[in-house]
Design a protein that fits this description.
Blueprint: E1 2-6, H1 11-22, E2 26-30, H2 63-84, E3 87-90, H3 96-100, E4 107-111, H4 123-138, E5 142-146, H5 149-159, E6 184-187, H6 193-209, E7 215-216, H7 218-221, H8 228-232, E8 237-239, H9 247-255, E9 259-262, H10 264-274, H11 309-316, E10 327-329, H12 332-341, H13 344-375
Parallel strand pairs: 1-2, 1-3, 3-4, 4-5, 6-7, 6-8, 8-9, 9-10
């Protein structure tokens, strides 16, 4: 059904995409540039990759740098790709589309992070990136998708262009919810002080009001390493996100681990108070506005304003998890009440059924996408 080249920088997006499209007969030239390859590969998948490496593709977007890289890549792989690659795919760093653009093959960009990248660029370079993406899209070489509602709306805000949402499903995970441990997990908060501070506050609240509910972070229980089956044995997880879309939360959904998430109102307030969502945007520090003006700035508040509660709440409502059959809480008191009375097995079942239906729907979307690639001016999916 097709041969795909992928050189993405995130291990989660790579695994989700590969396992979804394998079921449609797609095969892969997997040169993943993720630094966490050891989670899923026995050897570095990029070890034989020429021209590209983790250093020269991990530079904030700069048109001149990536244009030179694209020329070198095309010189090395262009003729070969005409016969062997049906489409290129990238997700975590949208400017990989620039790298692939001179090979004259179809490109699929499935956004899983803000389109301007996870590193701070300059206004001029962000504008050039938008121009490039829209130019490639207009001539039929680039298909732009969003893996989640937030990135879908974020792209539309800055470009005025509506793109389809095609979720990344964690179908590579076979473990299912089977609780055997009493501890309730809390996290993920990564290594940021803001998350650790909020976790400490919640732990103190429960230690005083409901000491029989034992809260532990994943790192406390599994300081060296953990498997999916370790997480699936816990009764539930209180989710304190550090960004608006993360692989870990999609994995919890796939396993059916009951999730308890702060409402958008509460999460917005925590973000205003403590800057909880550190990785909400490429600049890890709070900002009052975006570096460029969005095409829809008259219709929607600025998505990169970390000081306006209404603006933050407006955008957090687009977070994917608020469309999932999980539990939300508007206060710690409500969280305590829900943890005491919740039917966790029922929540888990609803989550699992939702994920399976989403997976089936996503496969249908990909069938249409593959046909669209085949019919594009740059297409020719091999059968």
């Amino acid at each position: 059904m097709g041969r795909c080249w992928l050189s993405d920088h995130h291990v989660f997006t790579t695994q989700c995409f590969k396992h979804q499209l394998k079921n449609l007969g797609v095969t892969f030239y997997d040169y993943a540039l993720t630094g966490h390859w050891h989670f899923f590969y026995s050897q570095d998948p990029a070890r034989r990759l020429r021209v590209l490496d983790r250093k020269n593709t991990n530079v904030p977007y700069n048109y001149e740098h990536y244009d030179k890289l694209a020329s070198k890549f095309a010189d090395q792989y262009g003729k070969w790709s005409q016969k062997n690659v049906d489409f290129y795919w990238c997700s975590f760093k949208s400017y990989m589309t620039h790298v692939f653009s001179k090979c004259e093959r179809p490109i699929v960009l499935q956004l899983s992070f803000r389109f301007e990248g996870n590193q701070k660029s300059t206004p001029e370079h962000v504008k050039k990136l938008i121009e490039l993406l829209l130019e490639l899209r207009a001539k039929g070489q680039l298909l732009i998708l969003a893996s989640n509602r937030y990135d879908q709306m974020y792209f539309e805000y800055f470009t005025g262009v509506t793109i389809p949402k095609v979720p990344l499903c964690a179908c590579h995970i076979k473990e299912r919810y089977h609780p055997h441990r009493n501890e309730i997990l809390i996290g993920p908060a990564r290594h940021y002080p803001q998350g650790h501070h909020k976790i400490s506050q919640i732990k103190k609240f429960f230690a005083k009001s409901q000491p029989e509910i034992e809260l532990r972070t994943i790192r406390e229980l599994y300081p060296q390493h953990h498997e999916y089956r370790d997480l699936s044995r816990h009764r539930a997880i209180i989710v304190l996100p550090y960004t608006i879309y993360t692989g870990a939360i999609v994995e919890y959904l796939a396993m059916g681990i009951p999730m308890f998430m702060p409402t958008s109102d509460l999460l917005s307030q925590w973000h205003i108070d403590d800057y909880l969502l550190v990785e909400r945007k490429s600049d890890l520090s709070p900002t009052r506005c975006s570096m460029i003006t969005g095409e829809l700035h008259d219709l929607m508040p600025d998505p990169n304003n970390d000081y306006d509660l209404e603006a933050v709440n407006y955008w957090l409502k687009f977070c994917e998890w608020y469309d999932w059959p999980i539990e939300t809480f508007s206060s710690l008191e409500e969280l305590e009440q829900k943890l005491r009375v919740a039917d966790l097995e029922s929540i888990s079942k609803n989550m699992f059924n939702f994920e399976r239906q989403q997976y089936d729907d996503t496969l249908l979307k990909w069938q249409h996408i593959l046909q669209e690639i085949h019919d594009s001016p740059y297409g020719g999916i091999s059968s």
